[in-house]
Amino acid sequence: MRFCIALIWKSTSRILKMLDLDFYQKYDTLTLAQKLLGCTLVHRTKDGLTAGKIVETEAYLYNDPACHAFKGKTPRTAPMFEAAGIAYVYLIYGMYECFNIVSGEKNRGEAVLIRALEPREGIDLMMERRKTNQLRNLCSGPAKLVLAMGMNRSNNFQPMVSETLYCEEGELNKSEIIQTTRIGITQAANLPYRFYLKDNRFVSRV
DNA sequence: CTAATGATGAACT
DNA sequence: GTTCATCATTAGG
Fold first, then answer.
1. Mean pLDDT across the stretch A133-148?
2. Does A10 have pLDDT greater than 90?
């Protein structure tokens, strides 16, 4: 496994193992959805840095009716057809946004939805943004974590190797991964493309 | 359980 | 251009 070492500066400087583009591009989407579990998502805004361990993901594949890109490229789904490793953020139900990482072969239209994080850094800022002080309620859902992390549709197309948006290497025992069906979809509802960390309190549901 | 809330895309004229 | 069903959700009761 190859990682690039990036120097990231905050009030005190530190060295992080940032996942590079190769990480997002070398796995198929179902594998990447599992490899991302345990990694830490980091976002930096003018208000500060927030970070959380990825504990729940879903895979959306090109030949999968539940995938936004299933019927082909449209203005909304254009990011999904780029090379893997950029963000796809879209509006859902008129009021919430969801964050995906584009995956798979270029021009196929696949992505991994990030569904839940275990808060790690910037928890006060997350609480302020989410208007709650309940740790477990901060990032336990795709729209919740987007709010807590201070992300929005302006992050659409943003490479996951930016100064302000990236993932850090994680460590994970494969036996800790639970595989189930995805949440909130009607098409292809039987496909087992959801993954989460066993016994983790921060998943959106068990 | 259900309302809130609006963009998206497809199917029409 | 207009209409309309759909929607990878959440908070509140």
1. 98
2. no
Does the C-beta of A186 come within 7 A of strand C?
yes
Q: Cβ neighbours of residue A100 under 8 Å, at least 6 residues apart? A: A60, A80, A87, A88, A89, A90, A111, A112, A113, A114
Number of H helices, E strands in chain A: 4, 10
Which helix or strand (DSSP H or E) is residue A5 part of? strand A4-8
Q: Can you tell me the distance from the alpha carbon of A152 to that of A202, in angstroms, rounded to the nearest whole number?
A: 21
C-alpha distances (whole Å) from A152 to each of A39, A71, A89, A116, A174 are 21, 25, 7, 16, 31
Distance between CA atoms of A111 and A86, rounded to whole angstroms? Answer: 9
Nucleotide nearest to A77 (CA to C1'): B8
Does residue A134 reach within 7 angstroms of strand C, measured from its CB?
Answer: no
